[in-house]
Amino acid sequence: MKLDIQDPRLTAYALGELDATEQQAVEAALRTDPEAQQAVATIRALGNTLRTEFAAETSAELQPGQRATVAQFRPRVPLALRLRRALNPTTGRVVGGLALAASLFIGVLVSRPDLLDRGLVEPKPQLPSPVTTTPGKEHAVHEESPAGSDVDNKRTAAAQPETEIMPTEPLAPPPMPSAVGRQMMLSKGAGNAAADLGRMDGEVDDMLSPVQSARPPFNTETYDHISDNPFMSVANNPLSTFSIDVDTAAYANMRRWLRDGALPPKDAVRIEELVNYFPYAYAGPTDAAPFATHVEVASAPWQPSHRLVRVALKGKVLPRRARPHSNFVFLIDVSGSMEDSNKLPLLKQSLRLLTQQLTADDHVAMVVYAGASGTVLPSTPGNQKGKILAALDHLEAGGSTNGGEGIQLAYRTALNHFIQDGNNRVILATDGDFNVGVTNNGDLVRLIEAKAKSGVFLSVLGFGEGNLNDAGMEKLADKGNGNYAYIDSLNEARKVLVKEMHATLNTIAKDVKIQVEFNPTKVAAYRLIGYENRALRNEDFNDDTKDAGEIGEGHTVTAFYDVVPVGVPLALPGVDPLKYQTPPVDPTAATTNSGELLTVKLRYKEPAGSSSQLIDVAVTDGGQLFEQATEDFRFAASVAGFGMLLRESPHLGTLTFDAVAQLAARAKGNDPDGYRQEFLQLVTAAKRLTMNTDAPKGQ
């Protein structure tokens, strides 16, 4: 089926207003229709333009009475159709600011996405009042709403099978305009609002491309400083030791910045998380070990005289009957900072997806926190989805953020329902903006470190923008024996919580450390690419009290070393001769076992274990060229190179965005979910932004 670009279903799809059957049909058509794909991108671009225009206004927020009045009604016409009517379908030109303002008036006043359903104007049914919370006390969930109520309808819809969204879409559906944008239309009146929107008349391509919208002017996002790993001399530093990392938050966050039309802050780019975002076709273990180890060596694409070494792990996949039962506690931030549509509303949609995966053998409790914390759902079997979804539906944002108190209650709840040999886990969903109680990152980390000893693991899901505490959330997941993902769209939620649910939430090995010993007769120097904040002391490798990373079921982990062979020139800073001990032995005179390039050693513990086990793998170099390496090796290397470019690494060599795009395109291979194709689009977006000196940049 070929779609007419005037078909209103394109706009409905772009704004997420199709039912499952319609959505599936449109997605099937889009895969083979570039013109229709471009139309979808244009519609989403316009949505982002509207958001930017509204956010730029400084009018006061809606008063409670005004908000209540607006919330009594639903729009007469779907938002998708209103937007389509405001566009000339042939040229893409905005026609008539007044018509556009009038058609969007009701939709942009309401911040809650569930009020944008299709249908006639009708009073909004009154929902039960939000669950109130009291410190240290648990509250039973509200009784189920009467049949046919709005809550019941949403619960029924949530229970339907999910339809996959086309993963190659250039932009996620635009969030709703900000509160000040909504108030702008009230305070100025439709005429003035139309005049404001009329400024956007002109060709859509001229006013905004999918990666050119401006970011909000005020930003307090927090990232830890990262300094690129330097080259290390093997003569002085023959060992490299680090903790593995399976987090993916940095990739999704980087994508969000680029789609918003700005380069991400350098410290937001953790290269290992970019590389580990993608699934790779590594073989799993054939023995009793929880993961298999694979090492591959080829020339470095950015410096052909160097060797690029990939160390890769692949976690085992358990049979369904062998998977442990889960005891989950959803720890949900419902503070005032979570009010935006890409925070609590998206969070609720994401946890609905996860809820659909639960079985009768799983249990989930729900703890919320704002100024205080409380239990809104006691531990409930996973097949009682109506109760779980109803508790989610009732959540509303408001108040300050006492994350420390919520963490205490969540762990206490998890321990009260602890499953021996099960998957006991707190899932923290937040923007990380803790501002009451324990607010210091260091104190929160110490709190989590203490709780991690209980056997309850922690996963962190980050949401939103503007005040995102990325640094704090990454630390909490690291010290809580868990992982950290950033959810920028429902597509990402589906990837993390549905497609990769068991990798995300079912740990098969903990405290996994890697130590590489380089042969000084073969290697003059080396550099670990990424993992800067995962570095360990060499002595930590054999110390079972030292915390390290976790691997989930089926997880793939990838790390790269840029290796300088003996004889290849490299300027390294030296040190003065030692006064009290013999200097290192001349590398060329060292004795080795063979022609080995290096040895990789790994230590890990069973999920409930306290003693580590050792694996070691000797590696030789067959002289393979980069072009002869496996597809996964070459694609992962292109992603690492992209991260180096975004970080403006001093070790770029010959790397350019064009070179990265060529490397990735040649190694795209089988891409069933479209993640690699999306990566190519992001490379193009980053290149355009670096060429545009006026483009905003993350600080």
Q: Which short descriptors sum up this protein?
A:
single chain; 699 residues; alpha+beta; 6-stranded mixed sheet; 5-stranded antiparallel sheet; 21 helices; 16 strands; 33% helix; globular
Task: Give a description of the structure.
This protein has 21 helices and 16 strands. The chain is an alpha+beta fold and 699 residues long. A six-stranded mixed β-sheet has the order 7-6-5-8-9-10, with helices on both faces. A five-stranded antiparallel β-sheet has the order 1-12-14-4-3. Strands 2, 11, 13, 15 and 16 form a five-stranded antiparallel β-sheet that branches. About 21% of the residues have low confidence.
Short account of what is shown:
The protein has 21 helices and 16 strands. It has 699 residues and is of the alpha+beta class.
Break the fold down into its secondary structure elements and pairings.
Blueprint: H1 8-14, H2 20-30, H3 34-55, H4 64-70, H5 79-85, H6 97-109, H7 150-158, H8 179-198, H9 204-207, E1 232-233, E2 239-243, H10 249-259, H11 271-275, E3 291-300, E4 303-315, E5 326-333, H12 344-355, E6 363-369, E7 373-381, H13 385-393, H14 403-416, E8 423-430, H15 441-452, E9 457-462, H16 470-479, E10 483-486, H17 490-499, H18 501-505, E11 507-518, E12 523-529, E13 549-552, E14 556-565, E15 596-605, E16 613-620, H19 631-646, H20 657-666, H21 675-691
Parallel strand pairs: 5-6, 5-8, 8-9, 9-10
Antiparallel strand pairs: 1-12, 2-11, 3-4, 4-14, 6-7, 11-13, 11-15, 12-14, 15-16
